[in-house]
Design goal:
The protein is an alpha/beta fold. Helix content is 28%, strand content 23%. It contains six helices and seven strands. The strands form two sheets. It has a four-stranded mixed sheet. It has a three-stranded mixed sheet with strand order 1-3-2. It is globular.
Length: 162
């Protein structure tokens, strides 16, 4: 697509995405793309690849998609915010293939409370949440004052209402 060349973004992006976003006139220069995954601390972890080479998502969960892996540098949201001098988050969107619960729990422990959260709950969706951590996190979200705006098959948008 011309849009991906213009913005130097790659991946399997839905066809109408750039037409919708372009109307908003975003300042793409303010967006930083980091070669760092999200986790609860700074580390290097195995990201397991999908067996289907046409799919690009990887997961920290062994055999969520496959067993071959890449080693990837990871860090916490708090550490990344400190590196860039950020003091708050307005909107956080996470589709991190099973790491969402541990990353969000650490973020809340670090007293970081974005106004809006858009989360895909992959552990639950892929039937890999044997310890019911998604349920525990959803209770914590409610206790913190988050309300569900949209729930589309466990792709959930929350708003902090306190």
């Amino acid at each position: 697509y011309y849009e991906t060349k213009r913005w130097n973004i790659t991946g399997n992006i839905q066809k109408d995405y750039f037409m919708i976003v372009e109307k908003l006139n975003p300042n793409i220069k303010k967006i930083k793309f980091l070669d760092t995954g999200l986790w609860y601390k700074k580390d290097i972890l195995k990201f397991y690849k999908q067996d289907n080479i046409n799919n690009v998502s990887q997961s920290l969960i062994y055999n969520m998609f496959g067993s071959k892996y890449d080693e990837v540098q990871v860090d916490s949201i708090k550490n990344l915010m400190n590196i860039f001098g950020h003091t708050h988050i307005d909107l956080l969107k996470l589709d991190i293939e099973g790491a969402e619960v541990i990353v969000l729990d650490k973020m809340f422990d670090d007293n970081i409370f974005p106004k809006y959260l858009c989360i895909e709950f992959d552990l639950y969706i892929n039937n890999k949440d044997k310890e019911q951590t998604t349920l525990k996190l959803s209770k914590r979200l409610k206790e913190l004052g988050y309300e569900v705006l949209i729930n589309n098959k466990m792709n959930v948008t929350f708003k902090l209402c306190i």
